[in-house]
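During the reporting period the student researcher (J.K.) took over the structure-prediction task from the postdoctoral fellow and processed the backlog of single-chain submissions. One of the processed entries is reproduced below for the supervisory committee.
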Amino acid sequence: MLSNTQMPNNISLTPAEDYDAMRSAGIQTIEQLGSDQWTDYNTSDPGITILEAVAYAITDLGYRTGFDVKDLLAPEEVDDHTWDEIFYTARQILPNSPVTINDYRKVILDIEGIRNAWLHPSKEYEVPVWVNYNFYEKRDEVDCDCAEPEKVFCLGQLDLQPADETKVSQWWAQQKEKVNKLISKMNETLAALETNRTKLAQDIENEIDPVAVEHLKKSLEEIIKKIQKQRQEK
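J.K. obtained the following structure tokens:
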């Protein structure tokens, strides 16, 4: 036989969980501190709305923090990867950004290869910033959540010094060398794909088994798609 479950009429709440008590205490504090200017304590008043939102947020936190620590830290189901993903580092979980000079110094020291660093405020009110429009870079779209982020071209690079002709020439020489290496690598890939395509075409002509022929034709189609893709990227 099923037993009846009843909810008690008088539930004892902690101060952090008692919404009505916090709302009343907030209004009493407002009356004591600002009754000369603040006389509207109805729900329609924006200040009372803010007070109610804060009181609700506190009750929610009070309810959550009342759980056992084991319930806060561990999920209901535990697998082999639970403990690899359940805890966050301070850099991931803290919302604040560097503010003071020491904060920025610590950020710089976190960069691999930097052993020490010092920051000094500039005596100039404004620090001139130059844009080098000879610089461009192809990078992934950071705002894209898709599996394969779109490649975008970024034009311009910030610098504290104007770009002189020597730096520009060196940069273009480096870019030219990178492009030549990339083209050379693409040509090698295309040559290898063309060789494979020729070989597959010959194998199809010499093959008698229909099943093997179909398999070779599918492989040939994949090779042709790869060749087309390489030529488009080139």
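The committee noted the following: The mean pLDDT is 79.
J.K. will present the remaining backlog at the next meeting.
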